Task: inverse folding
């Protein structure tokens, strides 16, 4: 599966999403959100943790179908912007192999006031998790691995 | 019979053992294509948990497929 860096703006200064194998730099992304009309900034970082469902996780592997992850991500950012009247909303999602503590996903929102910023940020991360064509494989300490959400569905039949 | 290019992702790719393949099948909808791939590769995933796209546009399981279409089969997503 070819994984390449891909990043673009839908409208200048308005929306941006990236799905990339390169590390996420929250400080750099935060700077891009600066807007003189924004009085509030809210961000979310999703980190790789060492445990899931009682199993010790060594690392995570993310796979994305970039063309649709980008278009669906743009749509989510546009929805957040419309619903919560925030000036700018960006997000970044990693692909490839990630270690414990790595930043897997970042969402940043700038808005006039804190309420819109918090709500837009929450909306974006919640929607990203269920709508983007991105898959996560957990590699466990015992040598096994499993696709998150997939194995449970299959075993529930 | 239609010639349909099928692309697999994540768990589906591992079950199929290939990223993509072209099937010549008697299929009317995306669900028919999914059923054909399940019979071929043995995945037990129900369609309710999965998503499908046709020619890079998100689709429904009852969306029609045409000769030459590319059908992308997405197992349950887990971003974030």
Result:
């Amino acid at each position: 599966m070819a994984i390449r860096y891909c990043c673009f703006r839908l409208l200048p200064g308005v929306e941006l999403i990236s799905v990339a194998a390169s590390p996420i730099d929250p400080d750099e992304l935060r700077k891009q959100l600066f807007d003189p009309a924004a009085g509030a900034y809210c961000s979310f970082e999703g980190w790789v943790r060492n445990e899931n469902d009682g199993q010790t996780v060594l690392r995570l592997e993310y796979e994305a179908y970039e063309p649709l992850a980008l278009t669906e991500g743009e749509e989510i950012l546009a929805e957040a912007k419309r619903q919560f009247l925030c000036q700018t909303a960006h997000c970044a999602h990693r692909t490839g192999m990630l270690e414990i503590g790595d930043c897997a996903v970042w969402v940043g929102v700038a808005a006039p006031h804190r309420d819109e910023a918090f709500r837009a940020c929450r909306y974006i991360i919640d929607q990203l998790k269920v709508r983007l064509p991105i898959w996560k494989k957990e590699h466990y300490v015992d040598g096994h691995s499993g696709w998150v959400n997939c194995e449970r569905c299959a075993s529930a039949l | 019979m239609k010639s349909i290019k099928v692309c697999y992702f994540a768990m589906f790719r591992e079950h199929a053992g290939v990223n993509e393949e072209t099937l010549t099948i008697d299929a009317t909808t995306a669900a028919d294509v999914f059923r054909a791939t399940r019979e071929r590769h043995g995945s037990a995933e129900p369609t309710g948990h999965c998503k499908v796209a046709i020619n890079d546009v998100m689709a429904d399981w009852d969306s029609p497929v045409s000769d030459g279409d590319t059908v992308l089969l997405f197992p349950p997503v887990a971003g974030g």
Notes: Chain A touches chain B through 32 residues (CB under 8 Å). The beta strands of chain A are 7-9, 15-20, 40-47, 51-52, 55-64, 88-94, 96-99, 103-111, 134-140, 145-147. Residues 7-155 of chain A form a domain with the Aldehyde Oxidoreductase; domain 3 fold (CATH 3.90.1170.40). The CA atoms of residues 91 and 107 of chain A lie 4 Å apart.
